[in-house]
Amino acid sequence: MFGKILDINENTIIVENKSKKIESNLLNVHVVFQEGERRVVGEIIKITSEEFQIMLIGEIRDTRFQAGILKVPSMNSGCRIIYKSELEALIGSQDYASKETFLIGSAINYEGYKVTANMDEFFSHHFAIIGNTGNGKSCGVARMIQNVFYFNNEATPKKARILLFDVYGEYHSALTKMSSIPNIHVKNFTTEVGNENAELVNIPAYFLDVDDLAILLDVKDNALLPILEKALKYVYIFKSTDPRTEEYKNDIIAKCLLDILSSGKNSTQIRDQIISILTKYHTNTLNLDSEIIQPGYTRTIRQCLNIDAQGKINAIQYIVDFLNTFTRLNADDSFIGDNFIYNLDDLYYALEFALISEGTFNNQLLYERANSLKVRLHAIINSNQKQYFEFTRAIGKEEYIKELFMTPMGEEVQIVNMNFNYIDERFAKILTKIYSRLFFQYAANLTPRGSYPIHIILEEAHRYVNNDDDTKVLGYNIFDRITKEGRKYGIILGLITQRPSELSATALSQCSNFIVFRLFHPDDLKIVSSISANITKNDLDKLRMLRPGMAMAYGSAFPLPMIAKLDFPDPAPNSNNVKVSKIWFEE
Question: Do residues 428 and 421 lie in contact, with contact meaning Cβ atoms separated by under 8 Å?
Answer without folding.
Answer: no
